[in-house]
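Sequence, please.
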């Protein structure tokens, strides 16, 4: 009798539980390739409408038709996890995907970056995103598509500019009463409470000083604009906060991609290997798919000019498990993101075994190895991940006349600004802020320059 996917899924889940994987329930759904493409492009099954997703859809479709992209599954962490499988995949491919999804579910259930995100955003992002989409559809009916699209232009352009080191639900800045010095905290406070130590007389000052807004460089541009824009309407603020909430959800997915894909690849390999209920042919065919997923090369190329996160993550986890054991690996899975994972555990020896290096590409197509230094290789792998791949721009000051001062933190950003794109984003922000907006960066000579909207350029 032919084996069926719906009969095999519970057996794989039982084996995963026996091997110590911990995760919230997973709801599997078979969907057509067209639906899977839309989910991959929009990031969620139902999401707010915007023209930029159409551009991504065209790119993804071109890549797919050229054979450069094949989507096996999409999984959304939560409680429950939502996993979508392509209904045109073979049984062998989908049973591997099921095992892979369980690895993802274990990772997101236990990794602290994911846990923190889920606790703040909530465990049902699919339903929340659908609610955001419905709310925006209602606003379009009331306000008009053009005005709503203009606000979405701004919010989605600023999507990378959040600060997940601070809570999702933040309070406004609170002015400090500087008339009395605050009680010392930490070691200093404990030291002053030791026996025999005289308590210092607390100093008093004059009236409170005016609060500088922001009191520190503010990285969360979506939050700041939604909170402080002088003439922002409620529906505009709702859109900004909806985009910000979804960005908080996607942050761990982006920052843990190498770890997460590697962990899931290790577990799908192990689960299939120990699944004695699978026929020999299903196992062999599934492992062929595994080899395609984790190989370092693209197509028939014999040099990996771009890192395959599945291959890199899988290779690192195999090395760590072989040398440190499962419990040590689980502790790393719990505490790290890709930044710590790569810097702390990707050694020069592993890079040499995997044939990874830093290279430069000339316009004529010539490829040249520029470095095999492990620290430079770390940064080359991680550089696209900083700040969602966007330059770091902060709110530096909100002036009394409502002028918004933005500043590019070039000294710790590691990348320059694309001036044309920055000008476009500045023009977007101007629509919402409705007061003067200035953005400062430096030019190639290190001189400070003020990027201006196109209408201010002579």
């Amino acid at each position: 009798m032919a084996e069926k996917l719906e009969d095999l899924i519970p057996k794989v889940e039982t084996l995963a539980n026996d091997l110590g994987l911990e995760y919230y329930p997973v709801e599997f759904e078979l969907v057509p390739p067209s639906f899977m493409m839309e989910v991959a492009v929009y990031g969620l099954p139902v999401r707010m409408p915007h023209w930029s997703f159409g551009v991504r859809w065209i790119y993804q479709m071109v890549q797919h038709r050229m054979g450069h992209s094949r989507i096996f599954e999409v999984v959304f962490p939560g409680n429950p996890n939502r996993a979508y499988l392509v209904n045109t995949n073979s049984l062998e491919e989908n049973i591997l995907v099921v095992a892979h999804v369980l690895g993802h579910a274990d990772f997101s259930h236990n990794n602290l970056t994911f846990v923190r995100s889920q606790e703040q955003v909530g465990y049902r992002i699919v339903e929340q995103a659908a609610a955001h989409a419905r709310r925006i559809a209602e606003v379009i009916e009331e306000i008009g598509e053009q005005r709503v699209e203009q606000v979405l232009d701004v919010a989605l352009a600023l999507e990378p500019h959040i600060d997940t080191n601070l809570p999702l639900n933040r309070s406004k800045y609170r002015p400090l009463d500087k008339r009395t010095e605050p009680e010392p905290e930490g070691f200093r406070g404990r030291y002053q409470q030791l026996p025999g130590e005289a308590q210092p007389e607390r100093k008093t000052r004059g009236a409170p000083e005016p609060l500088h807004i922001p009191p520190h460089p503010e990285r969360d541009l979506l939050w700041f604009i939604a909170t402080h824009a002088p003439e922002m309407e409620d529906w505009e603020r709702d859109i900004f906060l909806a985009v910000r909430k979804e960005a908080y959800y996607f942050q761990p997915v982006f920052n843990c991609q190498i770890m997460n894909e590697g962990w899931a690849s290790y577990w799908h390999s192990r689960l299939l290997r120990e699944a004695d209920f699978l026929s020999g042919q299903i196992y062999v065919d599934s492992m062929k798919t595994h080899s395609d997923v984790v190989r370092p090369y693209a197509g028939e190329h014999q040099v990996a000019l771009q890192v395959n996160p599945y291959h890199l993550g899988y290779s690192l986890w195999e090395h760590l498990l072989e040398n440190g054991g499962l419990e040590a690996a689980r502790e790393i899975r719990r505490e790290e993101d890709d930044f710590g994972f790569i810097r702390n555990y990707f050694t020069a020896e592993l890079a040499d075994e995997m044939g990874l290096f830093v290279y430069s590409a000339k316009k004529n197509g010539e490829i040249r190895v520029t470095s095999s230094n492990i620290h430079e290789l770390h940064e080359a792998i991680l550089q696209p991940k900083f700040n969602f791949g966007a330059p770091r721009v902060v709110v530096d000051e909100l002036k009394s006349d409502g002028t918004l001062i933005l500043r590019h933190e070039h000294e710790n950003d590691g990348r320059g600004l694309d001036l044309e794109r920055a000008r476009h984003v500045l023009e977007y922000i101007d629509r919402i802020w409705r007061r003067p907006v200035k953005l400062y960066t430096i030019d190639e000579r290190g001189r400070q320059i003020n990027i201006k909207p196109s209408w201010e350029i002579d």
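Strands lie at 26-31, 73-76, 81-86, 358-361, 367-371, 393-398, 404-408, 437-442, 448-451.
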